[in-house]
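PT: before anyone asks, these are the final sequences, not the draft ones from last week. 600 residues across everything. Please model them as a single complex and drop the result in this thread when it's through.
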Amino acid sequence: MADILVVAEISDGSLKKTTHSAIAFAREAAKGLGGGFSILALGQGARAAAQELAGFGAKSVLVTDDASLANYVAERFENTVIEAAKQGGYAVVVATASSFGKDLMPRVAVALDAGFASDIAAVKAEGGKLVYKRPMFAGNAYGYCTLTTSVQVVTVRQSEFAPAEPSGGSSPAQDFPLAPPSPGAERVEFVSFDQVKSSRPSLGEAKVVVSGGRALKERFNEIIEPLADSLGAAIGASRAACDAGYAPSDYQVGQTGKIVAPRLYVAAGISGAIQHLAGMKGSKVIVAINKDPDAPIFQVADYGLVGDLFQIVPELTQAVRANKG
Amino acid sequence: MKILVPLKRVADPDNANKIKIPAGGAAIDTTGLEWKPNPFDEYAVETALRLTENGATPKTRAGEVVVVTFGPKETEATLRQALATGADKAVRVDAKDGELDGALVARALKTLVEREKPDLVLMGKQAVDGDSNQVGQMLARLLGWPQATFAATIKEEGGALLVGREVDGGVLSLRVKLPAVVTVDLRIVAPTSVYSKQTAPTFKYNEGVRFAALPAIMQAKKKPLAEVKLAELSADAALRIQYSTFEPPPARKAGIKVKDVPDLVNRLKNEAKVL
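LR: through. Structure below.
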């Protein structure tokens, strides 16, 4: 059997859209291996999530819904994933490389003694084996790799796998028992989750992203928010803007922050450090606004505008609103 | 507190766009690039130094910081650098770069942790060459120790650490009892990110990592640096991941400078068709 197991991400009792990128991977990999895929819905609220997941063509949706899984802690989640992987004899276990997948899946891999490939951008089958493409060196190289083990664990880059759309049908839901927590579990305690509340789309899903740099200083929100709202965009930021406290750290776009690939990316006052470019150069159209005509951001921008962002961004906001009129 | 910090040297990350991929793409050519410690690992060293500062007597550590790296002889430069900033001793696990993958490093580190018996393993959340983000998590699982990844803040409480983790959507706080594995994110080196029991909660560190003074660089040459064979730490040396080829990312075609906002909006609407 060469089936795939997708680990769904459930947070605050509801299914996260990151899951759909892992499903997109599973469809592709299953086609390559000539098998199918199942989905493990794990967390408090998994039963409702399983209903949402029924229409994607999975052979089954395994459901582990338990109050002890209200808040994600690796040591309380992982053994259920590991057990499901073992019992189903899956060839590949996959999650999206969100902070959830990044935290959890290396542990699952080592527990299964499975090879692990993280943050993959593409998959293809060659002679019955899966070849994974991974971005490395801040996106300055892609490596093609294979895993030498029969069971394999991967995480996929959300911006590289377009979210799977429902394909109809109704996958049967099956209860899967909660496995006991790991040995370290009694020594780790969830304390709080300080969430950045926003009515805007999330960075990973937005079709338009407006990002600001350190040059905005305390006026970051005053300048960036109206433009983002006029475009229906998510807000991003450079590392420097986050470090300085002008923007929440959750906004950071870059090699080690959020990786985005929207239709339109507007960079205002961002010089374009290599680590920032790694997080956004997959965008379809890039607009850069910067007072320094030699800023590296202009080397990747489709449209560059040199000037004072405190004048240009509000003017652009007005023009976008007028255009929508 | 005794803290073990694994370190990796990487090709200078600020020049990562200068890496060369020869025709055929069988390997990445890093010749001409300067080796630097992985920035996240440098942050882990800084965090370890902050957590062990202000020992019982002046200029002593409240505990011990042990740094370890995997690689050939020349990687000892990376260890000496960490010793010069304040780490107490170092271990080099002798290995060729091509003999290693993340899972093997995690297995070997497990044995080393069992020998060294630290209270805490502090490491970078990822190395910026392979960008895998895996060893800390794997090690925590192998040890059965609690893990806190992507730490932006650490506060020591009696026998435990309160860790603020940067995750999607905000900051998630975990309390982990020692011994534990913690991987650090960028903002762990901000002035008010790390507090041990010995450090006043009003104290502000200098932003970023500390630099070694010249006398410390001289003294670091006398600090203990042990060499261990990889085979001693992991009998299983099989690699789980194999790279066949590499390729550069597709180049973006050069863009244009527009003259003003109306020009920009017009092009976004009619040329790029994104408005």
